[in-house]
């Protein structure tokens, strides 16, 4: 085989290899998904005060193209340490600890952004602070401790990390919750966020809540 014959063989093979490489490189891949039903660490990207007791906490999904993996209307859970004061006294707001002295607590939150927003997820969190509060029935109540998770999240700054887990196996919870009153708070917070931020694009799924 002389040089010309070798080139005749090598050129098409090289062309084929380049073609396959380009195809593989540009082949559309499914976006990376953040929530995989496993516990994940998410970095706080931004904190925005919506009102005296409500904050929008933006969590980074790790890369600008990663999607949440949870449609709007479904919830995730956040972990936090049970406050030391609660573990040592066994009390929270003057009552036996509803978390039964566990080292770690978890609470559910319904993000106000979903898979349509790559790169980050927004949570709207109501923070129950300790102190005197006029309740909806007009009675004044003194909350000795406030809300555990709300206060934990209130202390977070951009750059801090938060442990979260996807809740996709419980996809119908928000649907049932909206009927049972459980999802109402989240729905109200979402609507409130939308009212305060009319520039933010918002997608309502279903008329009531997402029937999933
Ligand atoms: C499916 C689902 C989705 C949810 N989504 C959201 C969401 O998007 N955003 C959100 O903020 N919450 C959401 N919640 C509620 C959330 O899970 C927590 O229950 C809430 O944040 C309170 O948790 P905490 O640990 O701060 O309070 P806890 O320590 O668990 O409880 C304290 C409780 O005491 C009372 N309390 C304490 N201090 C005060 C005070 N100063 N004023 C009035 N009452 C007081 C409140 O009833 C409060 O719930 C959702 C719940 C569910 C089930």
Automatic annotation (TrEMBL):
One of its GO terms (molecular function) is oxidoreductase activity. Residues 37-179 form the FAD-binding FR-type domain. Keywords: FAD, Flavoprotein, Membrane, Oxidoreductase, Transmembrane, Transmembrane helix. The chain crosses the membrane at residues 6-27. It holds the Pfam family FAD_binding_6. Its cofactor is FAD. SUPFAM superfamilies: Riboflavin synthase domain-like. Signal peptide: none annotated. FAD binds at residues 107, 109, 124, 126, 148-149. PANTHER family: NADH-CYTOCHROME B5 REDUCTASE (PTHR19370). This is NADH-cytochrome b5 reductase 1. It comes from Cladocopium goreaui. The lineage of its organism: Eukaryota, Sar, Alveolata, Dinophyceae, Suessiales.
């Amino acid at each position: 085989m002389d040089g010309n014959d070798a080139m005749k063989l090598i050129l098409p093979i090289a062309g084929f290899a380049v073609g396959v490489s380009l195809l593989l490189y540009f082949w559309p891949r499914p976006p990376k998904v953040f929530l995989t039903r496993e516990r994940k660490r998410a970095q706080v990207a931004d904190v925005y005060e919506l009102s005296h007791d409500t904050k929008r906490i933006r969590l980074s999904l790790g890369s600008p193209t990663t999607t949440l993996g949870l449609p709007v209307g479904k919830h995730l859970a956040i972990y936090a340490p049970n406050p030391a004061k609660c573990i040592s006294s066994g009390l929270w707001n003057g009552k036996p600890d509803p978390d039964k002295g566990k080292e770690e607590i978890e609470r559910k939150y319904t993000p106000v952004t979903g898979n349509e927003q790559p790169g980050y997820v927004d949570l709207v969190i109501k923070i129950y602070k300790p102190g005197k509060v006029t309740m909806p029935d007009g009675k004044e109540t003194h909350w000795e401790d406030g809300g555990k998770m709300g206060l934990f999240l209130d202390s977070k700054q951009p750059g801090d990390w938060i442990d979260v887990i996807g809740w996709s196996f419980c996809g119908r919870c928000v649907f049932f919750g909206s009927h049972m009153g459980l999802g109402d708070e989240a729905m109200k917070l979402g609507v409130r966020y939308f009212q305060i931020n009319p520039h933010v694009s918002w997608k309502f799924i279903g008329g009531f809540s997402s029937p999933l």
